[in-house]
Amino acid sequence: MRLLYSRSCSRLRCSKVGIWPTQRWSAGESRDGCVREFWGASGGIEGAGGINELGARLLTTKRVSKYNHNFVTSMSFAASEMRKGGFDLGDGKLDFDKQLTAIEARVTNYLLANKRFEPTHIHDLARTYIERRAKRLRPAVLLFSYGAAGGKDEPIALPAAAGVEAVHTWTLTHDDLIDHDEERRGKPTVHVLAEKKARQELHYGVEESVDYGQRVAILVGDVQHAWSVSLFLQTECPPINPLVICKIVHLLESDAVPNLIQGETLDVQYERVAAEDLSEKDIEDMLWLKTGALYEFSARAGAMLGLNCADPMNSVVQDLADFASNCGTAFQLQDDILGIVGDHEKLGKPVGSDIREGKRTTILWWALKNASPSERKTLSHVVGNRSATEHEVEQVKDIFSKPGGGIDHTKGRAQTYIDKALPFLDKVRERVGKSKHLDLLNDWAQYMIHREY
């Protein structure tokens, strides 16, 4: 089986493009219960206590139910780190996990402050995943790549970091609907929430509510997609050349998004293809399309902003993109592992659902390749059987987890992709010199395959 997809970046000619500067707000300022961004005109934070002040305000207002308590906690952490001078991504004072927490607070703050959608159901559901704690790995690689390429003023890259998170969020909204998942980050998925709203607020019947949930989830994903583009266009010009933003949006819409959709389509199609009829390359190429493509885009966009360069094939830009591309595939391989043997509480989503859905993973591919007749019979009966019992799912997990089995093999494949990725950072060091942002990217790569959620 041969996969056809393009990883090329075509040239773009753009005429007059309307790009407007990011709106700035004072520390702690809010309107309609929305959090506003705290960047001052100098690129710093206006008021050391701004985030803690807002956190206290949110916790004492009637609108607090719209915000996740952990989000407020993460903003308070960010404020405390800024007082210590440790919030800046380049100062090396925070360990990697705290760097991610700081980025989460900053990106989440920007997103929640940014847009009002109508009607209310669309507004609330478009923001629900953003209000939940998340790793924000795609914004992180964009910001780290921005710094690694020479970017000095991180707030300039913040709209793009928020934009790539909005892209990721709309793919989750649609993916959860496609996969019939009912839980995301420990809470109900968008289509489940929409179904509940239909019953409780619109007084629909059961079937009408399910139908409403599915329809609205599609629309929520669509508006999140549009939102993501508007976020990229909020990048300040100057200092960034408008052609750079124009090119980044073109790459998003002409390359990254089609690749994401192709990967998701193949994932759905492969469920009805015998795993033995697929090669491991078929599966890993599909994983790259689903996941690696957006990581590649994130690093490319960050590097283009850092260099203020509209050429996506610039050597530094390409090296950082290739680095993130390989890490993205490793991330998805690790995700497949966690989907089998991860901790439900940490993951915030069901463990074992990939077995019932019949997902074609390298774990399954390797297990079938090396299965005994009895193991093959079990795999054939359980994988793809949405009515499989917990006991049957556990039997499959045992087959996958045996020494030298599918889990061990996939761990090795993930490590191989990280080993392919790291030399690209060495090439960037040779071109631009040592950088703490490059050290953060190295930590980010290791995190991709050692994370537990």
Describe this structure in words.
The protein has one domain: Orthogonal Bundle (Farnesyl Diphosphate Synthase). The chain is mostly helical and 453 residues long.
- Summarize the amount of helix as a percent range: 55-70%
Ranges where pLDDT stays below 50 over 5 or more residues in a row are 1-93
- How is the main sheet built? 2 strands, antiparallel
Separation, N- and C-terminal Cα atoms? 32 Å
Shape estimate: globular
Number of E-state strands:
4
The number of distinct helices, counting runs of at least 4 residues, comes to 18
Task: Work out the count of structural domains.
Answer: 1
Q: What radius of gyration results from the CA coordinates?
A: 22 Å
Q: According to CATH, what is the topology? A: Farnesyl Diphosphate Synthase
Secondary structure class reads mainly alpha
Name the average pLDDT. 82
Bin the strand percentage: under 5%
Q: Give the CATH superfamily.
A: Farnesyl Diphosphate Synthase
Task: Tell me the CATH architecture.
Answer: Orthogonal Bundle
How is the largest sheet built, in terms of strand order?
Answer: 1-2
State the CATH class: Mainly Alpha
- Please trace the helix and strand order, writing H or E for each element: EEHHHHHHEEHHHHHHHHHHHH
Short description:
With 453 residues, this protein is mainly alpha-helical. Helices cover 64% and strands 2% of the residues.
